[in-house]
Amino acid sequence: MNTKILIEMLEKRSGHTITSAADCEWLALDFTTRCGKGISVNTLKRLLGFLAYDGKSFRQSTLDTIAAYLGFRDWNETESAAMDKVSAFGHNPAILDADKLTKGDLVTVTYAPDRQIVFEYRDDDRFVVAKSLNSKLHIGDIVAIRQFVLGYPLLVTETLRNSRSLGAYTAAKIGGLTTIDCQHKEEL
User: What's the domain of life for this entry (predicted)?
Assistant: First the structure.
């Protein structure tokens, strides 16, 4: 499910804005109060893009607890409602999947306040940072990224710098990516 839409649904239900990892602590308590079932703070952070996510599926019981909190029977019903919301607003976020790229393609992303990163695709969801303006990533870093989604945080599942793993990294946590541009190798 689209993270931005899930956050909107949770904000509407809770009456509380969710803009940072700290908000997940409050939300975890609200889950316990309203549903009698808890969800770990770190699970909420991963689900909402405030903590790196390894791409593994969340437990069905966790998803169903979220559904119950939102007033739905199960997670499938929640996803259907979210899809209806996307269709109703004509919202179709731009998504660029790494598995659709060819070696040598360049992906340029920007995000607030004045960040720009250019990634050169290698293979197997791996990129090398070709340019980095005001970002914590350095030129030459090798990063693993599955997809780029306009308006959502950039989730880097692994960062290698000088052959040393720095772990996962999340950029554009607030506001998400503002632009995504892809230049295919044959266009360069």
Answer: Bacteria
